[in-house]
From TrEMBL:
The organism's place on the tree of life at top rank: Bacteria
Cross-referenced Gene3D superfamilies: Aspartate Aminotransferase, domain 1 (3.90.1150.10), Type I PLP-dependent aspartate aminotransferase-like (Major domain) (3.40.640.10)
Protein name from the UniProt record: Cysteine desulfurase family protein (TIGR01976 family)
SUPFAM superfamilies xref list: PLP-dependent transferases
Residue ranges constituting the Aminotransferase class V domain according to the UniProt record: 19-391
InterPro entries for this protein: Aminotrans_V_dom (IPR000192), Cys_dSase-rel (IPR011340), PyrdxlP-dep_Trfase (IPR015424), PyrdxlP-dep_Trfase_major (IPR015421), PyrdxlP-dep_Trfase_small (IPR015422)
Pfam families in the cross-refs: Aminotran_5 (PF00266)
Keyword hit for Endoplasmic reticulum: no
Keyword terms, alphabetized: Pyridoxal phosphate
């Protein structure tokens, strides 16, 4: 049984009384993560790779954190876990590394539900290599990516498919395994943006069978750092984007130009402890805990969706139920800009957000980009039903004010 009150005690920011519902933009950080970062900075903040004691200690702490993430994502090898400054930069580095594999006339497929982080690098790669970028478009009524539509796009020239497990606007969970199976049968690489999914569900990269999977750990209750899983067999064949002398067997470092922020990578390991219930790290324990989170979040999401569906001036931009979706809910209000809605909720110390959220292709496709985008409420497991009710009261005020 999930105890939201106990979970809330682990996040000091909640003591302020504010309501944080912009979690898809950045979650709150765990006290234990912040403590670990501070401890590292005050005790082992030295360069790794030397023989002296503190250098060895710092390197071990990084290795221990990396191993936790290997277990969290059920990767086969620790060197498949690659830290970086952000998911955006990791995807950019990956696209640079893949360039020698892309030839003129090749085709890359990207969904139009993506954050720009998973569009721009592939558009630049296609332009650089003389390849063609093709878009897998979302179904405008179901707000889901349909596998049949993807099948129609694939040709013998397709080399890569890049798509998100969950859209940061729509909240719908996409069929990752169906895509990777289709791709593997045709020797097509798959790159999955898991940023909007990872806070809500367990990720098993072996079961998903993707070639790369990226997350932003600052959206999974950790510090501002990114993490990428890269399948070892692929990563060892790719162009080195770091110093030329780094050997192939040092796979992560080859994709970390400038190195990484040690204290953040070390501190992030504590979020895995939290997701494991502060027990020994195991994928099954993390999966069970995230399932409990998701069940709680679904109840809150239902409260919000039920309210929005009763409002005649509201258009939900995404699935209208909790089937196969996460608690990221976007909407527009007839007669109000998204900013006007948020200015009212701001007065109640409720943190929601308005705009395009870097998903420009999607909002243009859905016809809401030029109207200021959408209002987005993005929930996490530490949100409560009382907070949802406060949000609904504030939205009532916003809608009432607009009618005057």
């Amino acid at each position: 049984m999930f105890d939201v009150a106990q979970a809330r005690k682990r996040f000091p920011a909640l003591n302020s009384g504010a309501i944080f519902m912009d979690n898809a933009g950045g979650s709150l950080i765990l006290q234990s993560v912040a403590d670990e970062i501070r401890d590292y900075l005050l005790t082992d903040n030295v360069q790794h790779g030397a023989s002296y004691r503190h250098s060895q200690q710092g390197a071990k702490r990084l290795a221990d954190s990396t191993e936790k993430f290997r277990r969290m994502f059920n990767a086969r090898f620790a060197d498949e876990m690659i830290f970086g400054p952000s998911a955006t930069q990791l995807l950019k580095n990956l696209s640079i590394a893949l360039a020698p594999m892309i030839q003129p006339g090749d085709e890359l497929i990207v969904s139009n539900t993506e954050h720009e982080a998973n569009v721009g690098p592939w558009a630049a790669l296609a332009e650089q290599c003389g390849a063609t970028l093709r878009f897998w478009k979302v179904h405008r009524e179901t707000f889901r990516l349909e596998i049949d539509d993807l099948f129609d796009l694939i040709t013998p020239k397709t080399r890569l498919i890049a798509f998100c497990q969950v859209s940061n606007i729509l909240g719908a969970i996409n069929p990752v395994r169906a895509v990777t199976q289709l791709a593997r049968e045709r020797n097509i690489l798959t790159v999955v943006d898991g940023v909007a999914y990872a806070p809500h569900g367990a990720v098993d990269v072996q079961a998903l069978d993707c070639d790369a999977y990226v997350v932003s750990l600052y959206k999974v209750f950790g510090p501002h750092i990114g993490l990428m899983y890269g399948r070892r067999e692929l990563m060892q064949t790719l162009r080195n984007v770091n110093h030329a002398h780094i050997p192939t067997e040092h796979a992560p470092y080859r994709f970390q130009p400038g190195g990484i922020c040690y204290e953040l990578a070390v501190g992030a390991g504590r979020l895995v402890d939290y997701l494991s219930g502060d027990a020994e790290t195991s994928w099954s324990a993390i999966s069970q805990r995230l399932q409990a989170f998701a069940a709680h979040e679904n109840k809150l999401t239902n409260m919000l969706l039920d309210y929005l569906k009763q409002q005649t001036r509201v258009r939900i931009v995404g699935p209208g139920d909790t089937r196969n979706r996460v608690g990221t809910v976007s909407f527009t209000v007839k007669g109000m800009t998204p900013e006007q809605v948020c200015l009212v909720t701001d007065q109640h110390d409720i943190g929601i957000r308005h705009g395009h959220f870097h998903s420009v292709q999607l909002l243009r496709e859905l016809g809401v980009f030029d109207q200021g985008g959408v209002v987005r409420v993005s929930l996490a497991h530490y949100n409560s039903s009382e907070e949802i009710q406060r949000l609904l009261n504030a939205l009532d005020q916003a809608l009432t004010n607009a009618q005057k």
